[in-house]
């Protein structure tokens, strides 16, 4: 590849969102896993992440149940682990979709979206939104956050 | 309040998600802003965050266009700044909604959800999902991530 990880991340809406919103590597590893990458060397090359940081982030994701280790062995090589999304990991698709939409809108790179979300069967673009139980989509402005049963706000 | 920030965070799906997924404070500050808190002392008391860390996170959020400073002065006090969600900040509602759903499902606290999302007009629960351009909701398994125009993956 002729491009650097820095250039790739500069074009990635999620990366730009996470520059504001948190520690970026974990969700970027998850993004690469959604693209089908599973191996330490691939994550490292695509993200330009230091090996010790990548090791720590993979450990966090495995402990958190987002990735699972699977041993593999290439011909003539020692056995290594690859990292595959668990069901919980695959369900982060909505989180990534929400981050991408926000970054595309509020932190655009000038190159256009780096990731698009499409209906697999039709190729039709999809967006992340709020949906009522009877299937009506409603805009975020019509949605309120309220304390739930696990909140201490209402009890305090 | 009789409860500690540690207890409050233990019940918060977003906090538990971010223990796996990134640096937690920024989105938690945003969550508190959605609940209507705007002041340094409120963020500090509700999150149990060290003052220097909170100062740094607020600075990040202001620079990133998520919060804006507004001066206020209580009677007999010096002028201080409060922190109010910008339009970009308010549009993080979908990101928080996606994180909450994931945390409720995959990192439950045992106390039930700490935040619920409801249609303001009806009180009806809403969920975050993928919606096609013609308004059909489709499950995440039917959605594919593909490189967009800003991606270097397709060009490499």
TrEMBL record, chains A, B:
Record's keyword terms, sorted = DNA-binding, Transcription, Transcription regulation
**Ranges where the HTH hxlR-type domain occurs:** 12-111
Say which species the protein is native to.
Answer: Promicromonospora sukumoe
Q: What is this protein called?
A: DNA-binding HxlR family transcriptional regulator
Q: Which domain of life is it from?
A: Bacteria
Q: Does the keyword Ribosomal protein apply?
A: no
What GO MF terms are annotated? DNA binding
């Amino acid at each position: 590849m002729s491009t650097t990880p820095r250039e790739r991340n500069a074009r990635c809406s999620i990366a730009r969102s996470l520059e504001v919103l948190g520690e970026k590597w974990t969700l970027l590893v998850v993004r690469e896993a959604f693209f089908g990458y599973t191996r330490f060397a691939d994550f490292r090359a695509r993200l330009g992440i230091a090996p010790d940081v990548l090791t720590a982030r993979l450990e966090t994701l495995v402990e958190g149940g987002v990735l699972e280790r699977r041993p593999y062995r290439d011909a003539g090589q020692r056995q290594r682990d690859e990292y595959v999304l668990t069901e919980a990991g695959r369900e982060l698709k909505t989180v990534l979709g929400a981050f991408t939409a926000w970054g595309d809108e509020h932190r655009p790179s000038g190159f256009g979206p780096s990731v698009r979300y499409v209906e697999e069967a039709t190729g039709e673009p999809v967006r992340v939104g709020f949906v009522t139980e009877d299937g009506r989509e409603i805009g975020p402005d019509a949605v309120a956050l309220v304390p739930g049963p696990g909140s201490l706000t209402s009890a305090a």
